[in-house]
Amino acid sequence: MVHPPNLHGCQNAGIDRLQWNDRPHAIGAVGPTTWTVAFGIRNLTARIDRHKSMLTPAHWHAARGWYLQKIDAGEANTTSDYNAAVKRLQTAPWESWREPGARTIGLPFEDFPSPLQAGLFELTSAQLISVVVPVFNEETTIVSVLRRLASVPAVAQIIVVNDASRDQTGGCLADLNNQLHDSFWTSRLSGGLQIFTHQVNQGKGAALRTGFQHVTQAWTGVQDADSEYDPNDLMRLMAVADAQQANVIYGSRFLLSEAGASPVWHRQGNRLITKLANLSFGLSLTDVETCYKLIETERLKTIASQLRENRFGIEIELTARLAKTPDVRFAECPITYDRRTYAEGKKIGLRDGFRALWCMARYR
Question: Would the pLDDT of 21 be above 60?
Answer without folding.
Answer: no
